[in-house]
Hints:
Blueprint: H1 2-31, E1 35-41, E2 48-54, H2 55-76
Antiparallel strand pairs: 1-2
Amino acid sequence: xxxxxxxxxxxxxxxxxxxxxxxxxxxxxxxxxxxxxxxxxxxxxxxxxxxxxxxxxxxxxxxxxxxxxxxxxxxxxxxxxxx
Length: 83
C-alpha cells in the first residue's frame, strides 16, 4: 500500500514540476517577444543542449565575436577588413 502512495506522490510532484517550468518559460517569452533558441552540442559531446537568447543578447554576442575576429586577424596578419 505504501508503494502505491509513494508512486502517486512522486507522479504528482513530477507533473507539478513540469507545469511550473512551462509557466516560467511562458513568462520569459511574454516578457521578451523575440527569443531565439538553438540546440548546440558541447565540445567533445554529442548531447545537445537548448540555449535561448533575446534579440538584444544575440546582437551583443555577434558584435563581440566580430571584435574578437578582428583582433585575431590583426595578430595573424590577415587584413580582410581593411580592403
